[in-house]
């Protein structure tokens, strides 16, 4: 019989595992968001450098 059914809710271990999985997912999404932000910021810096360089050379 499933522990959730027998006890009327998730066991302590099941709650721990679920919370751990959520924590891992949040960490992955946070890291991914930081990576995307850095890529966007770096592209903006490169673009502004290219524009400034083309203006100076004219």
Question: What this model shows, in words?
Answer:
The protein has one domain. Helices cover 86% and strands 0% of the residues. It has two helices and no strands. The longest helix has 45 residues. It is rod-shaped. The mean pLDDT is 76.
Feature tags:
about 60 residues; single chain; about 0% strand; mainly alpha; rod-shaped
Please outline the major beta sheet. none
Helix percentage range: over 70%
**Uncertain runs:** none
Structural class: mainly alpha
The domain tally reads 1
Topology as H/E string? HH
User: What count of helical segments does DSSP give?
Assistant: 2
Which percent band covers the strand fraction? under 5%
Q: What is the terminal separation in angstroms?
A: 78 Å
Shape: rod-shaped
Computed over alpha carbons, the radius of gyration is 24 Å
Number of strands: 0
Compute the average pLDDT.
Answer: 76
Task: Note the topology.
Elements: H1 3-7, H2 12-56
Quick synopsis:
The chain has helices at 3-7, 12-56. It is mainly α.
